[in-house]
From TrEMBL:
InterPro entries listed in its UniProt record: ABC3_permease_C (IPR003838), MacB_PCD (IPR025857), Macrolide_Exporter_MacB (IPR050250)
Protein name: ABC transporter permease
Residue stretches making up the ABC3 transporter permease C-terminal domain: 274-394, 737-852
Residue ranges of the TM segments: 269-295, 318-342, 362-386, 407-430, 442-475, 496-516, 733-758, 783-803, 823-846
Domain of life the protein comes from: Bacteria
Places the protein is found: Cell membrane
Ranges where the MacB-like periplasmic core domain occurs: 19-238, 499-701
Keywords associated with the record: Cell membrane, Membrane, Transmembrane, Transmembrane helix
Region span, Disordered: 58-81
Membrane topology recorded in Swiss-Prot or TrEMBL: Multi-pass membrane protein
Source organism per UniProt: Streptomyces broussonetiae
Family named by the database record: Belongs to the ABC-4 integral membrane protein family.
Amino acid sequence: MTVLKTSMRNFFSHKGRMALSAVAVLLSVAFVCGTLVFTDTMTTTFDKLFAATSSDVTVSSKDSSDTGETTADNGKPPVMPASVLERVGEVDGVKSAEGAVFSTSVTVIDADKDSLSPTSGAPTIVGNWNRNEARTMTVTDGAAPRGPDQVMVDADTADKHDLKLGDEIGIITVVGTHKAKVSGFAAFEVTNPGAAIFYLDTKTAQQTLVGEPDVYTNINVTAASGVSDAQLKKDVSAALDGAYKVQTAQEVADANAEDVQEFMGVIKYAMLGFAGIAFLVGVFLIINTFSMLVAQRTREIGLMRAIGSSRRQVNRSVLVEALLLGLFGSVLGVGAGVGLAIGLMKLMGAAGMNLSTDDLTVAWTTPVVGLVLGVVVTVLAAYLPARRAGKVSPMAALRDAGSPADARAGVVRAVLGLLLTGGGGAALFLAADASKAGEGALWLGAGVVLSLIGFVVIGPLLAGGVVRVLSAVLLRIFGPVGRMAERNALRNPRRTGATGAALMIGLALVACLSVVGSSMVASATEELDKSVGTDFIVQSDSGQLITPQAVEAAKAADGVEHVTRYKMLDAEYRTADGKVIKDTDITAADPTYAQDLRVETVEGNLADAYRPDSMSVHEDFAEEHGITLGSKIAVTFEGASAPAELTVRAITSSDAVIDAGSKYTAIDTLAKYVPADKLPLDALVFVMAKEGQQEAAYASLKTALDDYPQYTVRDQTDYKEALKDQIGQLLNMIYGLLALAIIVAVLGVVNTLALSVVERTREIGLMRAIGLSRRQLRRMIRLESVVIALFGALLGLGLGMGWGATAQQLLALEGLNVLDIPWPTIIGVFIGSAFVGLFAALVPAFRAGRMNVLNAIATE
């Protein structure tokens, strides 16, 4: 009880000094709990949607997915004849059966040819209005579609795009473009996470989406009273002789939920990873806080030991303070986490994904995880300062002497730090020297972990040399004030090292990712210049395949020399040695593709691979299966009823970056074996302009594809910029998540300076008494903060560039051979770190400047 009272008294007497550590715990716990609440809420939202929209039993084609997705490679959804609906309706136990037809392989545009598809990545769905849809949708304005010239739109999409009744929209499918006017709006009775949904009448939907009458993608079956879904499924399956896929409502919901959980799992664990980095940075802040508080209470600890307190009791007193800090920060963090989750939901709403706070889900495990994590991390971080406090002898503490174990601990730290850093460097060298990417990735991971821990351990030893160098360059120009700031930073290397290490972690990751991202862009740019001979590339940024109508429009553009179609599909290979290779693909293109992409061949000529019944393979595939020029391979294309016997006419290099590992054949060869209705659409289209007409062809091509806004026309410069933007957006998102760790690190600098000012109160008073002005005092503290921040930045950026360079060597095994150091980014981050130091010193410097000189001198 005495230990608890002492701890409570110390905690509340130093509550101001504990505040920033509590904020660090709060932020880290909030990020964890916010991530859990946000992902749980998204899961709840989708679960409700799937449960509400599933009929008792759903019948679909064997070719359809379990989730009902209809993005078939030929652009049409897999369908069933209307006779299946009649057969299902006659099954005992069926109350009603209704046909549905819908597709997600669509683009919808308004009268200005602007896309109405969601920007959040959610699907665009066009289907027929039916009773199953009416269960979950309410017509809020106008009426449901009653003819080919009418379409009903979900209310959310209408609001986003300011659609009005009577507005004309166009629905672009593989069949063609269907135009209709808005007849009504329908609102979801459950939350719509962001899909754009458009309803046609049944006949129009069949003709628009499939190009055939009397076909359905799904049959929604309602069970009669007293008939279970499982029994109904069994009876329907028996009536259809197993020729179609039959699923209960629960099975459909589970399949959809599984897809969502996979996607949410990636988001969840990525965000928790960044929360873990923030926790790691917070550990340094907490260690520094308790180390300085223990140092400031050395005499008090000596008195406690002198009157009978044991080492264990002193140790326990500090740990109880840490427990109180962890509990306080974690409780606030849990509440802040819920607020953060709501903020993320609002942010997703602005991006087009609607999430209602009515579905806010706070599982009982979320606050438990937050509390346990926050408390455990805080107590563990305080363990070393607590142990150090317990080891101080009473007499040494009473005369303010240091611990006799300090020197020995410094030697141990030096040896351990050198061993870890050396081990990390060796692992990074082995990673860079690896011959296989998988093996190198393991060494890279080990090198990153060991070198990071090594730099943290050896940081106090590096502080002396690095701070002196930085001071010589930056602080000496400020005269005596600069020298005093240097000495203050060097006074306690352990504290400076720990404070700098907190900033080092976040900046090391920033530098590493910057080097990797910049190298990827530079490598891809070099490869494009070397390999791509075509003038223009037409593709969909959302991954949609290219319709035949768009291909014909491209061919009709002025100034076009040729258009190359490019298709990809799965195939099964049987080689001459009898081996069967499954789950691989083949690329089918027009013969002009040999001009559009300069692929290096090790044997033969790639143009010959586009001769009838011919193909190419890449070098590794050929070596693995004993294939040479002239070898015969039996290839069974997806959708083909019989295999094709193709002759290998070329063997390409396996070191290519673009189309790495591809096997090529001609589209005419593919069409010989795959029925026309099962041929996949083009994934890309390459366009070559006539000599000297590139600019005119570029403008004409864009005009020709104006009716197809889902596709983008790019020349090589555009393509490089798009690649750079994509990687840049990914890096910016990662930097945004790393910002939490950097914020916590800044709090660490603020806390270190604030506690350092308290520790040096008497010294500051004496300096003021002998003539140091308030301005000079504030400048001294600011300069001390700047040099500590730059110390952490220098270590972090150097370490991160080493990691990034090693990672690039692994990427070189995949053909990305250019190492590019983004010096503007590195220099910008380094300079930014100086401003971080200035910002962190604002409050401590202000408080120091306001000290009363006499009171400060009288402080013990």
